[in-house]
Every structure is written in structure tokens, then in C-alpha cells.
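Predict both folds.
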Amino acid sequence: MTEMTDRQSFIRQGSTVVVGPKMLRTPLVLAVFHLACLSVAQPQTPATAGDGVYDVVIYGCTSAAIAAAIQTKRMGKDPVIVCPETHLGGLTAGGLGWTDSGRKEAIGGFAREFYQRVKAHYDGPDAWVYQRPEEYERYVPEDDAMWVFEPHVAEQVFEYMVEEAGVTVFRDRWLDRRAGVRKEGTRIVSIRTLDGDTYQGHVFIDASYEGDLMAASGVSYTVGRESNDAYGETMNGVQKRWAVYHQFDHPVSAYVIAGDPTSGLLPRVHGGAPGEDGQGDHRVQAYNFRMCLTTVPENRVPFPRPDDYDPLQYELLARYLDRGWRGVFNKFDPAPNRKTDTNNHGAFSTDNIGQNYEYPEASYERRREIIAEHANYQKGLMWFLANDQRVPQNVREQMAQWGLARDEFTDNDHWPHQIYVREARRMVGDFVMTELHLRGLDPTPRVVGMGSYNMDSHNVQRYVDADGNARNEGDIQVNPGAPYPISYLALVPKASEATNLLVPVSLSASHIAYGSIRMEPVFMILGQSAATAAVLAIEDGVGVQQVSYARLQRQLLEDGQVLSLP
């Protein structure tokens, strides 16, 4: 009790501990940071936005938003985070603890500092409650950073960093998407949230997954998949030929009565033709929740049975299991303390294929309905696998040993508070990142960060093939070949549309290029770079399109960003 009181006192007094990459490894700093980070309370949200003008107004709760705000503060300017949720950190704190990173050496700056702080937490002995550190193979004492972690640890680190930097955060503030953006010419003057608060700023950053501020500002964007012809690509649009992963390995009838088309389609199978390879469409890659599961009895909460549970929703999976598929547990990726980051795997899994097409443009109310449907689908899936007699006994008994982690997402019945919005709106600027840039076939100007993960699209639709069997389409996993640069030009809108807005998350990229760029470390990288450009735009009195790249590059390198690799 005394220890907790001391930790809380440390935070309340606002003590400043600069725990940057250069000094993070000293024992004293590690100990102080570990104690402070574990107990940091959620910073109090100010009651009103006030009448002042912020230097940089950041809309979103994501890891990119946090990176942008802290970078702005470190450069001597006054940021504010207008967060439409109550939790900070987006998916990094919402269950995606198995970091999709690619080459680790491509990650620098704020992003690497975050993972170093996560490592500092796990360097402390009291971080290991249900497991000894030597039992977890991804904890390596000599490493400078840690790339797999528990959700609550990520959120605590973000909260501490925001508190440490003195960043103002307004939570549960939702942009008035119809009339909440006031512009004078091409400059955004202020944004208003649904509660009536107004936030004035010199530069604005849309760090939301959905691109709501971007869209409400009149900036061009797209939703869905471009055709291959649009940018001279090979892996955009409909991709039946490439869809070999997370596919049905055995034929499974798509009809309610197997083999009988007159009986109608099973749930989760879509009618209509899938389209021709390379053809553009409106479809969006599937969303899911990255669940944090455990088998530790004292920390395990049994999977809940949804009130509207319907076993017919999972009949397609039951038939697939009947055919011998057993890959149910292949993406139970281990996290510390005998937990997981559980992701989609296989032809029928946690991805709710085809149920998210409306989400990017939907109203807040409709989005909540879509999120609830996704949660019910996934909870029902886990209940089905752990309890339904259609499931083979060996799978059922093994799944019954798993459950939700009791000490995660404690204010949301242990269910992740962030749905995995893998893709929503994407800006269309004067420059668009494409497959050709990622593969090094076209040059990338004005580099502000790097990516290196696969060009990764999850399945987009489930259709009926010529034999009457279910078939998935849209999954692509292709390595670009090497780490690749990302252009500053992809973060800025057309100058004719907005001259003081930066978009580091819903950036200007084709569907397939975005499939690689969309990783959480890259969002942090781009959030930091966007904030750096915002500060330089303010200092030089220019629009974001006119920021001196020489100055931007120099500042990014000084702050640890990685802009090139062999």
C-alpha cells in the first residue's frame, strides 16, 4: 500500500523524468520509470476546450495522435488531443500486442522510444505476475526494446508519456462531421465537437483511423480498392488468383442444405459475383478484435454467450472442421504473463468478412451498430468453439481452457475497447503511395519515415464458386522486398483543399500500399513526422505543402527518425 501511494504521489507531483532512448538503460531511470508507469492514473480530462488557440490540434486517440502531440510539445509548441474515445493508444493499447513491425531497425524516434519504455516495464520483477521472465522467449534482457506486450501495459506507457509531456487531452469528444469544421479559404480555423466545444488551431492533424476530420474538411479521399489500372499496380482490386492464404483448403458447401442451391446461402456467405481480377470495387478488408486470452485459471474469464447467439452463423466453420481442418489455435500469439494477442487465422475465423463495408462513411450511431455486430459475432465464435457439440471434442476441450484475461479491459467486460479498423478512408493527394513505391520501382521523394511489413490485405468477401462451395477473396501477403521510404507528400492534402492539415493515418496511398503502411509502429513514425512538419509550418508561416524539406529532414534525423536503410 505504501509503494502504491508513493507511486501515485510521484505522478501527482508532476515530476519530470526524461526517459529517452539515450538514457533509458540506466538502472535508476529504469526503476523510477517502472514504478511511475505502472500506477499512472488516467489524466483528468479538462471540462471545456476554453477560448485559446492551440498551435496544433490533433484529432484522434491513436498511437499516431500521441506521437504527434508529444513531438509538438518537445518542439516547444502547444498541442491538444481531441480524443473521440476515453482510452488512448488505439489498437496498440487495444489488443495488438504482437507488433507487426517488419525490420526493427526501420523504427526510430518516438516509436522506438515507446517500445523501449515497454521494455523498461518488463525489466522490473513485479511486471511478471503469472510467469517468470525467463519463461517468455520474447523477453531478452539485452534488447533495447520489447515488441510484444500486454494491452494494459501499452496504455499505461502512453498515459505516462502524455502526462510526462504535459499534453492536454479532451476525451469523449466527437467531431461534428456535418458542420463542425470552420474554414477560411483553404485554412481550417477551428473544429467543433458534438458537445459544443470548439478547438482553434494553427495546424490540424487528423490522426483518426477513419479520416473523419480529413473528410469533413473537404479533402479528397477514397474507400475500397482501386483497379490495377489506376496506378499501374498488380495486386490491387479483386484478387481471386492471389487469395491462397486463409482460404478453404477443402470444399465446403455454401448452402443451408449442403449441395442444394434452392435452400439459400449460409450466413457469412455473400451473394453475387466476386468481380474480375484487378477490377476496383467498394469493398474493405475485414475487421476484427485482437483478443487478449489466457489459460491461467485465476485470471481467466469464460467466454460469454451472446444473448442473440445463433449456431447457424458458424455452420460454415462446423462443416470445415468436419472436413478435418484444425488450425484454430495457430494465431494465439503468446504475450507476457501467459496471455495472447489472438488474431484471425484460417478460412473462417475472427475476421468478420464483408460486414464492414459501410463503416468508413457511416454515422457514429451506425458505426456503433457495426462494432456491436462484430463483437457479437466474435464472442459467439469463441462460445461456439468452446461449447457447441458440432465442434470436434479435442478442439472444444482445448478451447474451453481459454478465456478472456480478467486484468485486461476491465471497464469493458474484458473485451477490447478498439475494433481493428484495418482500413477506412484513404486520402487522395497530389502524390499517392503505391505498390510501385514500396517495391522500389518508382522513386519516393521527401522521405519522412520507413515501412517494411508485407503488403497485407485481409479477406474482403466470401462468395460462392462455380461448384457451390464457399470461397474467400482479398487476402494478400506479399513482401515488398526490403524496407521502403514513405513520402511526406502522402501526408498532405492538395493545396487547393487544405493548407494546414496533415493526415498521417488515413494518408494518401492505394489499397495495397496501405496494406503495408498501416502498421502501428509506422503510424507512430508518421505521427511524429507530421507534428514536426506542423511546427515548422507555424514557425515559417507557410502552408504544410510549402514546408522546407531540408529543415524537416534535418529535424527528423536529429530526433532519431530512420529515413534510409541499406
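Second protein follows, with its predicted C-alpha cells after the sequence.
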Amino acid sequence: MKTLISIILSFALLLSFVSCGAVSPNDDNGNSNKTPSQAASLKRDVKYDGYTVASGITLPFESTVIEHVQFEKTLYLLTDGGVYSLNTESGESKLLFEADYDSIAIHSDILYLYSSERGEISSYSLSGELTDSFSSEDIKDWNIKSFVATDNYFVFIRYRYQTEESKAVYQIATVNKISKQLEVAEEIKTGFVKLCPYKDDTVLAVFIDDTGAPDNFLYTYNAKSNKFEKVRKIAYDPASYCYDACYNPKADTIVLLMSTQFQPLCLCEYSIEDDENSSLLNAKVSEWNQGGSVSIYENIVSFFNDKDTEYRYFDYQNPPEHITIAYYSASSMHNVDLAKIIRSYEQENNVIIRTMIFEDEDRENLKIKLMAEDDDIDIFSSISVGADNCINTHTYVNLADFESLGEKISSDVFVDFASKTGEEYFGIPYGIFYTENKHENPIGFSAIEQYCIKNINSETGEYLDESGDELYKVLKYHYENPNGSEEEFYDFPYSTIQTDYLIMNPASKKQEIAADFLEYFFDAMNGDIKLTIAGEETSPIYSPFIELESTDNIYFMWKFQADGVLQTLYNAYHASLDTDGSDKALKDLAKEAARSFKMRLEG
């Protein structure tokens, strides 16, 4: 019999829109579709009445654990041979009764078991005594994906095969506890649904698009009113799948047992109502590639693989070391690279990497957290705040201060060039897109782009055309050559690099661990190590470091595009075609655009 093991936990926060609809979580129902702010921050004020799990727990059976539920410190395990109890503090486990059921739920101190073959719901005391049972043809032969009990209802998610009449895959159904009657049976179009008890007659519903889209949602479902209400988006690595969920009343969070493209099975946690604490906590469970079930009491999260009887748990009060990486939610391939590197690093080191993922509407929140010297963030992505902003406000740690990391950066022509400001290294580049000899393939914006290269350096805050005189000449050229010309306005060779950066937060209290991860990140991007996911080599990096022999005539887009303010100049470039082409009109346009750009550049 397998013994109790501890596990590693990893914090990770991902995000957009799941395809749900049909009758239930549908906009047409008049339900809320407001998606709250995702400014994530791990809760720090949770007070657990902590207890210690018994060591050396063994289970008195060899059968498969189908599901489990929990009441205080005791787990109730439904197996293919019966229901067992396991006291996690004492380690005592025993058979309560032999029975054949498909699913188990608990409410207060009553166990409820469902049999599809008999269309039966039976009630048992916690000591294993049968207290009630009823059967109905209405609930017979159901392929149950989720079963929970509320104050007054049993709530089911059942799988339905698609037919010409019904395109929905799932159906939500409620049975009244008092009348024993089926009250609701409505179809849901979604990738996957999992329920867990919440409050009164309300449950939490997790909608997962398991096609690889990062667009999934958490809803509440009121069994009495049959109404769904959207709570928030939830984010995962690609190709996510949710196996089970439970509610943590201490922290007001939902804990999910799920798998992702880069992690076979993990625990994820989201805040329910606190927008400023919508944290995703990714706890690596094991190398399982099958599902299981999860429950929580006080500081202990318990879970079982559905293929064996090994008990595993995570202890909130004794977590492994961890760091936090914050980045923008754009679902681009370089974020996939980052996710792969994170998972591989976690497997090779006893360190958790929690991620905060920010939406478009939340990007200012990350700036605020950094300005407030919030030490909850250890590493962040510059795409959310701008590399120029980080440099100008010195919101970075000089990576040359870490000997091994600094030596690696300085030894690589590209990374040394990309990461240096003055004599310091401010970050590690990633998400790299290199357009070599761009002047050889000019496009409609080549003149204004080259103008920006010549006149803007957002790293230093310089703008060399404050009068707009040169911009006027560019606008005049564009007006006269709206489709370009064989003789371009500018004639100089240039290549461009678009890149994001991972930057260490100077307020971080875990800089040594953060530097270790950044060095691992460097090695992965440089091809010096092979990543492993679940013990196997994973796919290569999508946009690794580039090889440069020379840095001549290479320009970083973040330097000449001045994040957030460049559009002022491009708007003038477009607007020039709407003028009468006169010198006065173009000069006025150029002068105003230059003035506005300079003002915005200076903040």
C-alpha cells in the first residue's frame, strides 16, 4: 500500500471567453456578463486552524477511488467496492458499507450517493447508516459528470450525446430534495463543466473549453432560480481540462484539480469575489495523466488519483519556496514558451512559480503595484508596463549583480545588446521577432518608421524633432506618394527587433531564487538545456534568442516606438492624406503632432 506523500505546489495566473450558451450561461438570460478586474494578489490574511496530517497513511483496500468528499478532517471515499472513511489526522481508515454507486456528494453531515443503473439517490449518516432512499425513472441511466447537494436540491451535470435535435453536449438538472421531483433539465453548450457546493442553494460552475482556447469562466448557479451569473475569467496553460473542484470557505476561493498542456495534473486556486485577490495557485500534483478528486479542510487540500489509492495533500501552512511572475495575458506563442519553461523549472527545482496574468484593462494595476514596491511580485514582463518606463523609473534589478547570470548575458552578443542600459542589464529578452534588412522590403509605413528610428529614443526620453520640421517633410512625402515610391524618403539600412523582457522587481525579497530562474530561462532560450514536461522532452522554443555577428543598424522597436504614445505620430501620418496637401495644412498637422507626442512622451 502506498504511503502518504507531500507534493509541490505551483502558483500560476492565464484568460478570454469560453464558448458557453444554450439555455443556461447565456447572455439572453439577462445574467451578468461583467468580468471583474484580474489584478491578482495572493491572499495573505487567511487564518487557518492548522492541523497535521498523519504520517504513513495506508488505505485498507486495493480498489479504485471513484470520488471522495470531506467533512471536517474525515474523507469519505467512494470506491468500486463501497464507501470508506479516512481520518486524515489520525490516519484511521475503515469500510463504512459495501455498495454500488456512481457518484457521491455531501451536505452538512449527510452523505448522498447516486446510482445511474437504479436511478436512485440514497442518504447515509457519517457512520454509514442508510437514512433515506428514493428512485425515479427521470434520473435513471445518466452519465454523470458532476453531482452536488445544496440546502434544498441535488444538482447534476450529465453528459448527453449529440443528436440532430440536440447539439448540446451537457445538461444541467436539479432534483428537489423534498418532493424528489426533477425540476430542471436544460442543455448547456460548453467544452466542459464541473460543479462544487458554494452557499445555500448556489453552486460554483467551472466552464472549460478543452479545445486549447485559453478562454474559460467561473460562474455561480442558483438551483432555486435556475440562473447562472458570471464571476470571472480563469486562465490556464493551453489545452486545459478540469477534473474536480472544491470551495475553500476560509479564503473564499475555488480550488480546481486540472491538467494542462504542460502539466499532467495540478491544483489551481481563484478568488471568488475579491477582485484584488483573484489568485491562481498552481500546485503540481504528480505525473498523473488521469483525473481525480479534490477536497479541502482548514490548511489541508486532499486529492486522489482515480487510478490508484495513493493519498496526496498540500499544506497551505507549509508550502514549498515560491516566486511570482506577472505578465500580460495576450495569448501569444512567447507566453507558451514561458509556460513551458516555468513547468520544466518546477520539475527540476523544489520551487513553485506562481503567475499573475493581467488583462488589457488591468495593465495600469501592475504599474501601480510596482510603484508601491509590492514585494509579492518577483519577476514581471515588460509588455505590461513598458521597458522604457522600467528603465526611466529604475524599476529593475541590475542582473550583472548576479555573477553567473551576468556572465552569461555578457557572453552572448544578442542578449548583451538587447538587455543593456548604460552599463547595467535590466532584463532577459523573450518573444523575439527579428526582421532583418527591413529596408529591402519597404511597406507603406517605412517612411514614418524610419523617422521614428532617427528621432525617438524612449530609453533616454529623447525626441529630436520637437519643432515638427522633419515630420512635415515626411507627411508631405507621404501625401505625394501614398503608395510609396521607387525613391524612398529615407535611404539607410535597418533591421528591427520586437521583444518583451522578463525583469526582476527591485522590491522582491527572493532575488536569489528569481535570478536562478532567470538563468534557467536564459539557458532554455539559448538552447543550452532541454526542457522536460512530465519527464519527457518538450517541443522547442518558439522564438529563442537570435544569433548576431554584429549589432550595426539594428533597432529595438520598444525604443523608437515609445509604448503608448507613438500613435500620435502615426495618426498624423494617416491624417495627412485627408488634408488639401498644402504646406500650411501639413506643417500645422506636423507641428501639433510633434507637440502632442513630446508632451505625452514626457508623461
